[in-house]
């Protein structure tokens, strides 16, 4: 009986602490281009097309898709895509179906300007070490205050937050300030 009471106390505490943040996250995602809840294949879920429930674990990031292989992409010399970028490219490569999740093989392909493709060699460098020793760039600490580097590398999630679209294009900072966050112009 005592363990049951402790279990309810833990669940109540988690609900009070985590749910307000989850509600804000849910609200910022709802209605955005990453809200697939209106698609028949999403089962009416907002989170499920991208994330597995906490009962399952996939790639250490509660991810509901298979990650593409790093070698599937043409990148700039010295670049190596991290898991966060591979998660993004798992749909934005234009070759993986959006509804291929939870072990299902889907047919709903991304199209148009949202497709990045698999040739990243002429795009903004992704998977590269941030050149903080170069005077043309801001210091790492200045960049980390506004964006985020992943293990010292520039990844898709450095500039984009897939859960917030209040600035458009899921940008972490205003588009006119984005370049100046890293580059001294």
What's the total helix number? 5
- Structural class, judged by helices and strands? mainly alpha
Helix content: 25-40%
Largest sheet: 2 strands, antiparallel
Shape: globular
Range of strand content: under 5%
Integer average pLDDT: 82
Strand order of the largest sheet: 1-2
- Our Rg estimate from Cα atoms comes to 19 Å
Low-pLDDT windows of residues? 3-25
Instruction: Give the SSE order as H and E letters.
Output: HHEHEHH
The tally of strands reads: 2
User: How far apart are the first and last residues' alpha carbons, in Å?
Assistant: 65 Å
Keywords:
disordered N terminus; 5 helices; single chain; mainly alpha; 185 residues; two-stranded antiparallel sheet
Structural write-up:
Strands 1-2 form a two-stranded antiparallel sheet. It is 31% helix and 2% strand. The radius of gyration is 19 Å and the shape is globular. By secondary structure, it is mainly α. The N and C termini lie far apart (65 Å). The protein has helices spanning 2-29, 83-92, 140-146, 156-159, 175-182, and strands spanning 128-129, 153-154.
């Amino acid at each position: 009986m005592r363990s049951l009471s402790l279990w309810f106390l833990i669940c109540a505490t988690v609900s009070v602490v985590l749910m307000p943040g989850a509600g804000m996250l849910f609200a910022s995602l709802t209605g955005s281009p990453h809200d697939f809840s209106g698609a028949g294949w999403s089962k009416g879920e907002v989170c499920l097309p991208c994330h597995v429930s906490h009962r399952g674990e996939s790639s250490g990031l509660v991810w509901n898709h298979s990650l593409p292989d790093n070698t599937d992409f043409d990148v700039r010399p010295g670049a190596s895509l991290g898991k966060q970028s591979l998660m993004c490219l798992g749909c934005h490569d234009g070759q993986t179906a959006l509804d291929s999740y939870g072990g299902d093989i889907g047919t709903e392909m991304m199209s148009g300007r949202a497709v990045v493709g698999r040739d990243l060699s002429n795009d903004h460098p992704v998977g590269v070490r941030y050149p903080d020793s170069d005077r043309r760039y801001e210091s790492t600490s200045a960049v980390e205050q506004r964006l985020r580097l992943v293990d010292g590398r520039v990844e898709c999630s450095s500039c984009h937050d897939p859960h917030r679209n209040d600035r458009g294009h899921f940008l972490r900072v205003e588009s006119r300030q984005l370049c100046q966050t890293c580059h001294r112009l």
